[in-house]
């Protein structure tokens, strides 16, 4: 199950910098490619807004 970025994203890019497989691309909000995401949670750990969680 991939992670998802909510509308609480402020576009700081902290998550994209931490992704080991470069699954996160810039957008409003940033977007995680579900096919590339390896579910490591690095992005969620770095998000200052708590805007990233596992997709349901």
TrEMBL record:
<keyword id="KW-0249">Electron transport</keyword>
<dbReference type="GO" id="GO:0009055">
    <property type="term" value="F:electron transfer activity"/>
</dbReference>
<dbReference type="InterPro" id="IPR000813">
    <property type="entry name" value="7Fe_ferredoxin"/>
</dbReference>
<feature type="domain" description="4Fe-4S ferredoxin-type">
    <location>
        <begin position="28"/>
        <end position="56"/>
    </location>
</feature>
<comment type="function">
    <text>Ferredoxins are iron-sulfur proteins that transfer electrons in a wide variety of metabolic reactions.</text>
</comment>
<dbReference type="Pfam" id="PF12838">
    <property type="entry name" value="Fer4_7"/>
</dbReference>
<protein>
    <recommendedName>
        <fullName>Ferredoxin</fullName>
    </recommendedName>
</protein>
<dbReference type="InterPro" id="IPR017900">
    <property type="entry name" value="4Fe4S_Fe_S_CS"/>
</dbReference>
<dbReference type="GO" id="GO:0051539">
    <property type="term" value="F:4 iron, 4 sulfur cluster binding"/>
</dbReference>
<keyword id="KW-0479">Metal-binding</keyword>
<keyword id="KW-0004">4Fe-4S</keyword>
<feature type="domain" description="4Fe-4S ferredoxin-type">
    <location>
        <begin position="1"/>
        <end position="25"/>
    </location>
</feature>
<dbReference type="InterPro" id="IPR017896">
    <property type="entry name" value="4Fe4S_Fe-S-bd"/>
</dbReference>
<keyword id="KW-0408">Iron</keyword>
<keyword id="KW-0411">Iron-sulfur</keyword>
<keyword id="KW-0813">Transport</keyword>
<dbReference type="InterPro" id="IPR050294">
    <property type="entry name" value="RnfB_subfamily"/>
</dbReference>
<dbReference type="GO" id="GO:0046872">
    <property type="term" value="F:metal ion binding"/>
</dbReference>
